[in-house]
Design brief:
six-stranded mixed β-sheet; elongated
C-alpha cells in the first residue's frame, strides 16, 4: 500500500460585499494564475499562486526596517554574521577561488534577469559548483520550472583555457617560484591550483616559452645598441666579461656562461651546454665561451677584450682563435697570496730566519693591498705593473724613489706603519714570493684590472629563477635563464637614492659607500603577458571542459631530491627532464 504524503492545510477567508465583487475577484485571480504559471507546465495551484504573488510584492516593495529611520545603520553587510569569522560549519567553508572583476559584475547582473518561464524575482538557484584550478564554475537553474539553466565562471575563456589559470602560470614563472612551492602554497591557502601538465600546455602548446626566448634576444640586441651609442665605443671598442655557472656543485648537468658588456654590465650573449652535449662539467666552460662570445660579435659588437676567471684554455682560445686581448680576474690573481705568505711568516722557532721571517709577519695583508693598487694604477701597461710589484720590496726598505708621487710615503713627517726590512734574506724571500704570483707572471692579463663582480652578481640573481637544488629539464632551464636575462638587463645600472658609509664588521676595510638603489621594475613581465595575449588572441576555441584539472602530482620532484646519475634516467618526453618539468 502506497504511503500517503502528509499535507498541511491553511485557509484564508475573503469577505465580499456582493456576488459581483466575488466574481470579479475570481476572474482576476484566474488571470493572474495564467500569467504567472510557467509555459508548458501545470497551472499553479493556490499555494503556488500565492507564492508567486508574494515574490512580486517582495520585489517591488522593500521590507520596512524595524526601527526608526534615524537609527538605520549607514553600512550593512550581505555576509552572514556581518562578515565576521565565527568558525566553520562544513570542512570546505574555507575553500576559495579567484575571480575577475568583470566576471563578478556579470554574475551580479545575471542574477537579476528573469527566467523564460516568467519568474522574475530571484529565479536562479545554484545547481552545481565545480572548481577548475583557481576558477570557480557555477551552474544555475530556475527554482520554479527547473528547466532553464545558466552558467557562470569566475574567469573568462582565452584560447580554450581559463584566462586566470594562464595568468597564474605566467605570474609564478616570472616570480621564479618553483611549481612545487606554488602547489603547496595554493593547497594550504585553499585557492585551487593547476598541475604540471597544464603548465606544459601554456609553456609549449601556447607558445609562452618561445615568446620568452624572443624577448631575451631582443633585450640582448638592445644592449648591444646601447653600447654602440657610447662616445668611447667608436675608438676603443668594447670589452666583455665571461664566467661559468654550474647548475649544481657536483657533476653539473647544465653549465651556463653569460657574456656581459664591460661598459653597461648588460648581457649581450649567453650560452648553456648540457651533459648531453658535453659530458665533462669541468671543461664545459670553454664550450660555452665558444658560443657566448661569438654570439655577441655576431650581434655587431666590436669585442676587443675578454675578461674571465683565469681559465687558461679559455685564454688560449681568446688570444689564438679570436685574436683578442685576454684579461684575468684580479681576485683570482691574489686569492692564493695569503696562503703562500703564511708559509714564510710563521713556523717553529728553530726555523726562524730559514723558512720563515719575522719581518714579514705584519705585511701579509698590506702586500695584497699593494698588488691591487699596482693593477689599478699601472695604466694598462704590463711592464709598468711588474715595476710596481718589484717596488713593493723597496718600499718596505724605506726606499721610496720609485713610489708613486701621490703615495703617503712622500709626505713630510711620514712614519712607516710596518716594520722595515733589514735582513737581506727576508728581502730576497719577499721578492721571490712577489715574482711567483700570477700577477707578476702574466702581467698583460692583469694590467687592465678587470674583476668578475658583475657577472658574479648576475649568477647570484640567477638563484631566484634557477635554484641549484633542483634539476630542471633543458627547455625549462633555458626559459628560466631567459627570464633572468630580461630581469637583469632591465634593472642593472639603475639609479640610487642615497649613499651610506657605515662600518661593516664583515668587511672592515671597505671604503666604497653603500648605495641604496631604487626599487626594481618588472616591465618585462607586463610586456611578456601582453605579447602572449596578443599571440593567442586569434584563438576563439571553446572551453576545454578539463581545463584547470590538477592531474596527478605524485611524480612531482620535491626540494632537494637527488638527480639520477645515469644519462638514461633523464629520458622522457622532454630531453633532459627528470619526471615532469620542474
Amino acid at each position: 500500500m502506497a504511503s500517503q504524503r502528509n499535507r498541511f492545510r491553511h485557509s484564508l477567508v475573503v469577505n465580499f460585499d456582493n456576488e459581483a465583487a466575488k466574481a470579479a475577484f475570481k476572474t482576476r485571480a484566474e488571470h493572474i494564475r495564467s500569467v504567472l504559471s510557467p509555459a508548458g507546465q501545470p497551472t499553479l495551484d493556490n499555494a503556488g499562486l500565492m507564492s508567486a504573488m508574494f515574490d512580486l510584492v517582495e520585489q517591488l516593495i522593500p521590507a520596512p526596517y524595524a526601527g526608526s529611520p534615524s537609527v538605520v545603520p549607514a553600512r550593512q553587510s550581505f555576509n552572514k554574521d556581518s562578515g565576521i569569522y565565527t568558525g566553520n560549519i562544513r570542512p570546505d567553508d574555507e575553500a576559495a577561488f579567484l575571480t575577475e572583476r568583470t566576471c563578478l559584475a556579470d554574475l551580479l547582473e545575471g542574477l537579476k534577469t528573469s527566467c523564460s518561464c516568467g519568474l522574475s524575482v530571484n529565479p536562479w538557484t545554484v545547481g552545481s559548483l565545480v572548481q577548475k584550478g583557481h576558477v570557480l564554475r557555477l551552474k544555475f537553474s530556475c527554482r520554479r520550472c527547473h528547466v532553464a539553466e545558466r552558467t557562470w565562471s569566475s574567469s573568462r575563456v582565452f584560447g580554450a583555457r581559463y584566462f586566470l589559470n594562464q595568468k597564474m602560470v605566467h605570474s609564478l614563472t616570472c616570480a621564479g617560484v618553483l611549481p612545487v612551492q606554488y602547489i603547496k602554497l595554493s593547497k594550504f591557502a585553499g585557492i585551487g591550483h593547476v598541475g604540471h601538465g597544464y603548465m606544459k600546455k601554456v609553456y609549449y602548446a601556447s607558445g609562452y616559452s618561445d615568446i620568452v626566448g624572443r624577448m631575451a634576444e631582443e633585450s640582448m640586441n638592445a644592449a648591444v645598441d646601447e653600447v654602440k651609442a657610447l662616445p668611447a665605443y667608436a675608438e676603443n671598442g668594447e670589452w666583455v666579461i665571461t664566467d661559468a655557472r654550474h647548475d649544481s656543485t657536483a657533476n653539473a648537468y647544465h653549465t651556463t656562461v653569460p657574456c656581459l658588456a664591460g661598459s653597461t654590465k648588460k648581457i649581450v650573449g649567453i650560452s648553456t651546454v648540457s651533459r648531453t652535449d658535453h659530458g665533462v662539467a669541468q671543461t664545459r666552460e670553454l664550450q660555452c665561451t665558444k658560443i657566448a662570445v661569438p654570439q655577441a660579435i655576431a650581434r655587431g659588437l666590436n669585442v676587443v677584450e675578454v675578461a674571465h676567471d683565469m681559465q687558461h684554455q679559455v685564454s688560449r682560445y681568446v688570444t689564438s682563435d679570436l685574436g683578442l686581448k685576454n684579461s684575468f680576474d684580479t681576485w683570482h690573481g691574489t686569492k692564493n697570496l695569503s696562503k703562500c705568505l703564511q708559509k714564510v711568516t710563521q713556523g717553529r722557532v728553530r726555523d726562524k730566519g730559514l723558512t720563515w721571517f719575522p719581518e714579514l709577519v705584519d705585511k701579509r695583508k698590506s702586500i695584497k693591498v699593494h698588488l691591487y693598487w699596482a693593477m689599478k694604477n699601472c695604466d694598462g701597461d704590463g711592464q709598468k705593473l711588474r715595476s710596481l710589484i718589484e717596488n713593493i720590496a723597496m718600499h718596505y726598505q724605506d726606499n721610496h724613489l720609485e713610489c708613486h708621487p701621490s703615495s703617503t710615503c712622500h709626505l713630510p713627517h711620514y712614519a712607516p706603519g710596518k716594520d722595515l726590512l733589514t735582513d737581506p734574506a727576508t728581502v730576497q724571500q719577499l721578492e721571490k714570493q712577489l715574482k711567483d704570483t700570477y700577477i707578476y707572471r702574466f702581467p698583460e692579463s692583469f694590467c687592465r684590472c678587470r674583476d668578475m663582480y658583475w657577472v658574479e652578481s648576475f649568477n647570484h640573481q640567477l638563484l631566484c629563477y634557477i635554484s641549484k637544488r633542483i634539476h630542471y629539464s633543458t627547455r625549462v632551464f633555458s626559459m628560466r635563464m631567459n627570464l633572468a636575462v630580461l630581469d637583469w638587463n632591465e634593472n642593472v645600472g639603475r639609479e640610487h637614492t642615497s649613499e651610506r658609509k657605515l662600518k661593516d664588521l664583515r668587511r672592515p676595510d671597505r671604503r666604497t659607500a653603500m648605495k641604496a638603489l631604487v626599487k626594481k621594475t618588472y616591465e618585462f613581465a607586463y610586456v611578456l603577458w601582453t605579447t602572449y595575449v596578443t599571440k593567442n588572441m586569434t584563438s576563439l576555441d571553446f572551453l576545454d571542459e578539463d581545463d584547470g584539472d590538477d592531474g596527478d602530482d605524485s611524480d612531482t620532484l620535491e626540494d632537494g631530491e637527488i638527480v639520477p646519475d645515469s644519462d638514461s634516467d633523464y629520458e622522457d618526453d622532454d630531453p633532459g627532464c627528470v619526471g615532469p618539468d620542474v
